[in-house]
Design brief:
about 130 residues; alpha+beta; three-stranded antiparallel sheet; 2 helices; about 20% helix
């Protein structure tokens, strides 16, 4: 059977820096699979590996798979789409589901939580700070 491209969104809970709030990461990856079920299984396996490679991330079990209808993946390929219904206006919706990230945790009285960005840098999960390793 010919494989197709899918994107998969998985949700992770990151280690809490304080008792006031939890931080969640939505991560979207591309997967080549023969069907929806295979794409979900591959996404779950990759999510588990991602947690093993991350500093304390926990997979919530949420997977949302999207079949890419374009035959080739490239520039301007839609890799994910989902819709929600809400009674919130645009500003309320964005503030609730896409809150601004602070520039620096320490300036907000919080503690940085680091992850490896690449071989030369690490960055904080909760703010925009990036430092050299």
């Amino acid at each position: 059977m010919k494989k197709s491209w899918f994107s998969a969104k998985c949700v992770f809970r990151l280690p809490a820096t304080d008792a006031r709030r939890q931080i969640y990461e939505e991560r979207i990856i591309l997967i080549e699979a023969k069907d929806w079920d295979s794409a979900i299984k591959k996404a779950e396996k990759e999510a588990s590996q991602y947690c093993d490679d991350s500093f304390g991330s926990e997979f919530t079990g949420f997977v949302d798979v999207f079949h890419l209808f374009d035959k080739k993946v490239g520039n301007k390929t839609e890799i994910f789409s989902s819709t929600q219904t809400s009674d919130l206006n645009s500003a309320e919706y964005l503030n609730r589901f896409y809150p601004d990230m602070p520039n620096d945790c320490e300036a907000e009285g919080l503690t940085h939580r680091w992850h490896k960005k690449d071989d030369k840098q690490k960055s904080c999960y909760h703010c925009r700070v990036v430092i050299k390793i």
